[in-house]
Structure to design on (96 residues):
């Protein structure tokens, strides 16, 4: 998916479903923690997108049933970003 706003090469969104987190305060906490962790670890993805010069929109959905800890998200976010980059490389590399 491509970003539609000119000048912004990478747009990101996060969400936590109401199915597992009935109270808004819990959904907001999950989203806040995800955004913080993403901001701290997003540099490799930002560099990749700028290098490829292709705008991108990334949306992350938290689907676990328990509230995450900050440490858990800081541990998992780099893995998620590496996986996104890997998937992009596999999908954009022409097959020979």
């Amino acid at each position: 998916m491509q970003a539609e706003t000119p000048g912004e090469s990478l747009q990101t969104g996060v969400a936590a479903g109401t199915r597992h987190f009935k109270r808004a305060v819990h959904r907001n906490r999950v989203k806040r923690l995800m955004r913080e962790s993403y901001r701290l670890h997003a540099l490799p993805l930002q560099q990749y997108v700028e290098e490829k010069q292709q705008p991108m929109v990334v949306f992350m959905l938290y689907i676990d049933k328990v509230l995450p800890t900050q440490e858990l998200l800081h541990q998992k976010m780099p893995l998620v970003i590496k996986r996104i980059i890997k998937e992009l490389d596999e999908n954009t590399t022409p097959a020979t």
In short: Helices lie at 24-41, 43-52, 70-92. Residues 70-92 form the longest helix (23 residues). The two ends are 24 Å apart (CA to CA). Residues 10-92 form one domain.
